[in-house]
Amino acid sequence: YDSNVDLAKNLLKKCMNDNNLVLKDQPIFAEVSEYGNSSIDITTRCWIKNSDYWTVNFQLLKDFKDAFDENHIDIPFTQLDVNITNKE
């Protein structure tokens, strides 16, 4: 919740625009879709040829992570804190 949502959306859009396999004559989409327990979820959409689906999927997942890392945007992950007490 501390990350800049507008920056995150812009980075995602840039990644999609920079991908050579994403069709440039169709709109791209990156908008907040949910407020989760520990995250603000952003849904992305872009148009590609069916035959490029998996290639683009894997490329964009890596590009999204790299862009977030470079811009100090955290991707939340599940954590569990365990407190052990000794009752004697």
DSSP E strands, number:
2
- Strand arrangement in the largest pleated sheet: 1-2
Specify the structural class.
alpha+beta
Give me the strand/helix succession: HEEH
Number of discrete helical segments: 2
Helix content: 25-40%
Described by strand count, sense and barrel closure, the largest sheet is:
2 strands, antiparallel
User: Could you give the distance between the termini?
Assistant: 41 Å
Outline? elongated
Mean pLDDT comes to 91
Q: Uncertain regions: pLDDT < 50 for 5+ in a row?
A: none
> For this entry, what is the oligomeric state of its chains?
single chain
Radius of gyration: 17 Å
Question: Into which percentage range does the β-strand content fall?
Answer: 5-15%
Please explain how this structure is put together:
With 88 residues, the protein is α+β, with helices and mostly antiparallel strands. The chain contains two helices and two strands. It has helices spanning 5-18, 53-70; strands spanning 29-35, 40-45. Strands 1-2 form a two-stranded antiparallel sheet. A hairpin with a 4-residue loop joins strand 1 (29-35) and strand 2. Helix 1 packs across helix 2. It is elongated and about 70 Å long. The N and C termini lie far apart (41 Å).
Throw out a few tags for this protein:
88 residues, alpha+beta
